Amino acid sequence: MSPTIPRASAWRDLVAPGLASLIAQAILIALGFWQIERKTWKEELIARIIRQTRAEPVAPPAPGAWDPARDEFRHVRVSGRFANDREALVHGLAAGETPGRALQGYYVITPLLSADGGTVLINRGFVPTELKAQVDRKDGVIEGQTTVTGILRASEPRAMFVPEADPARGEWFNRDVAGIAAARGIADAAPYLIEADAVPGQTTWPRGGQLKVDIPNNHLQYAFTWFALGACLIGVFGVFAYRHLHDSDTAGPAKE
């Protein structure tokens, strides 16, 4: 008696890997479409930021009405008097005159006693390391009433590899609004800071206009990657299934 070739058994062997591949395929497709949705969201965010930073400056929101999702990157104007004796320096980099080279230095965060009441931290801009001491840049110290225009920013969270601040030594590595305000004894500080605009033709330090709107938008590439992995999965499973069924067709008769 000649046994039959186990074709039905070969198909049954494909059920488990087929289901696993189907689930993986569904996940990959879902991730691809999710990245497309993220791309649309990111494009709208970038458009909103550019629109707000280029708009005419308006008054900043009241501290109690501050909504980062709505107000961050808004172009604002505020008047008051700088508390130059309570400035803080935050380690940072700025573009140098030579392309591709960055300057090491500090961002000068100075409290502004607002004419409307309260205090707001102003990132007046960048100074190179050799001008760290205020006495070495006295021509850039502004006394008396002044008006600042700039971009609203939320407090900058400390990233994983950023050193922790040392308020006692005046060492700051991120623009921590609450931390700097507390260290400088400012009880009525707004929960945001203002990144000062550049002053055309300025020759003194610090120099504003350091904020660069450069938000990466790589979601289309990510979507393509997920869809490509899905296509590869189809190809790999197709080859696997073909070989498995082909081997079952060409297998010799089983021995009795």
Structure description:
The chain has 256 residues and is α+β, with helices and mostly antiparallel strands. Helix content is 35%, strand content 22%. The protein is built from five helices and six strands; from the N terminus they run H-H-H-E-E-E-E-E-H-E-H. It has helices spanning 7-13, 15-54, 68-71, 177-183, 219-250, and strands at 75-82, 88-95, 102-114, 119-128, 145-154, 189-196. It has a five-stranded mixed β-barrel. A hairpin with a 4-residue loop joins strand 3 and strand 4. Helix 2 (15-54) packs antiparallel against helix 5. The longest helix is centred in the first third of the chain and has 40 residues, at 15-54. It is elongated. The chain starts with 6 loop residues before the first helix and ends in a 6-residue tail after the last helix.
